[in-house]
Amino acid sequence: MKTLLAALLCAALPSITFAADRPEGLAAAEAVAKAAFGTDCDMNGMTEVPMAEPDGEGFGHSVYRFSYRASYQSAADPEIEAELYQLFCGSGAYNVRHAFVLKVSDTESPKLVAFATPDLDYAYTDDEMGKLKAEPKVRGFRATGLLVNATYDAEKRTITSHTAWRGIGDAWDSGTWTFINGDFVLTRFEVDPTYGEQDPAVPESYVVYEAGK
User: Fold this and answer.
1) Running DSSP on this structure, what letter comes out for residue 199?
2) Is the pLDDT of residue 13 over 50?
């Protein structure tokens, strides 16, 4: 069934064109994500995933290249070259999922990027889930390899996700991960866990984690 859905999805994306020359290193990056997620990533059911167009709304792969000097390097050391692969893994209910694979010049193999996300403790006051008993609390952190509605900011070197918990988007969460010394580090996470019309007596959303605070 997933194979059929992936094929139908690919056929239903007229705004995307297949690149004649796929970027070098893409196949190796795809192999890392395919092995990590299996059938949870639609790539495993698609003959070839297209490269995303600038306005393709994330339905495809993207590749970003940049160089950096880590804090442990001296000024005389050459910069490290990095390739970041944003790989399409599926879509549904207004959300698009991507995996990220990073290849840097001082290592031999690409690696799957794992993103730290807060594990939240909260409870609702009503069955409609429109109000919380108390502000959400972070009880720990999990790691995920798939982000929803993710975008990469090349200038800030950040990846940001925004997950709509349902179609109308009244409940959601959003995270930002910043590239630091070869890894993407969680620097901000915000959540609106309440559904329905906004209660003016409660915050619209909660910043449950912010680096340095």
Assistant:
1) P
2) no
